[in-house]
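Record minuted for completeness.

…
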Amino acid sequence: MNNTPLADARALRATASALDAQRGNLPVPGDPHRSADTVAVARQISQLGTLITTLGDQVLFRANAETLAPHSTKVITSFAAAVGPVGEAASALGSVARQLSFLEQTEHLRDRPGTRGEREMATLVIGNALGMADIALRDAADSLHAASAAVSPSSVRLQTARSRSTAAAPSPAPSASAVPAAAVPPNRITRSR
């Protein structure tokens, strides 16, 4: 590993993309294709733990370098700052797993009046916790994307911006002198008789 601006920008961008992917894998209440189950949520908590380790390793690698490049402080700070939101997302998913476990344990009691209210509350807690996890992962990813752009050499930033552009700039209209004479309608002068 080296700590050139280009390598660091790539590492920041790769980690941000991994966080975006985790965000895209969050369960969505009511969506049968992305429904919450305890096993999937526990797996995602484990994956977020791996990402926290990756963030820590990125900080350690740069902080332990013999010489710090001018941009290294920004990179170290960015990786370190992402640990908090990723930890918050993992904590929120822990709450989701707990509530899902409660719902599974009380499934046979769902029609009882006392349990019905508790189960509805668990469903609300799940929705809120998933929303918090989504926001935390988005904040961490956005922060790393911004840091990547900040440490990227300007030519790389320009190429990245061009590759993200969805619409090409409109080509300039041809000047009047560049239009062939055949394309210009003749002036019509009407004469009265």
Observations:
- The chain has five helices and no strands.
- The CA atoms of residues 81 and 152 lie 19 Å apart.
